[in-house]
Amino acid sequence: MLTLNNTTVDTVMVPAGRIVGVDGRDSASRVEDTARRRGRSRLAVTDSTGRITGVVHVRDALKATTAALDVTAAELATPPHLLRPGQSVMSAIRSMREHRAQVALVADGPATVGLVALEDLLEQVIGQFDDETDPIIATHLSTQHTRR
């Protein structure tokens, strides 16, 4: 446990330059396409300045397109949970569980330095595991893509 308390969020996070995201003005359909192409279930949502303003789950985009709703990524997004780069993995897990967050932005003051998923933090504790929803979402996305 001593090692985990010394492992920090910045050693687990995806650096800011590698975060997969969509523009807040993008359609739900565009969110689906990006999620499919990039193999992600959650995407960062940015404003016109490139600042991350939220996180959108592909599930919400799928619901919107299935219901033929004309909504943007920004409208589907939830506010990001924030963590500090030097925060311990265990502290980050507790914080994310308390706030029911699956992903969090890692911010150093006003600057976003990365993004981390709860799954990645948990893998630091218990080892590699598969997300059981990944194949379900991938199958649904590929089915939706072939119908268009």
Automatic annotation (TrEMBL):
Keyword S-adenosyl-L-methionine on entry: no
Pfam short name (any one): CBS
Keywords of this entry: CBS domain
Superkingdom, natural source: Bacteria
Boundaries of every CBS domain copy: 13-71
Signal peptide: none
Protein name as it appears in the record: CBS domain-containing protein
Organism whose genome encodes this protein: Catellatospora coxensis
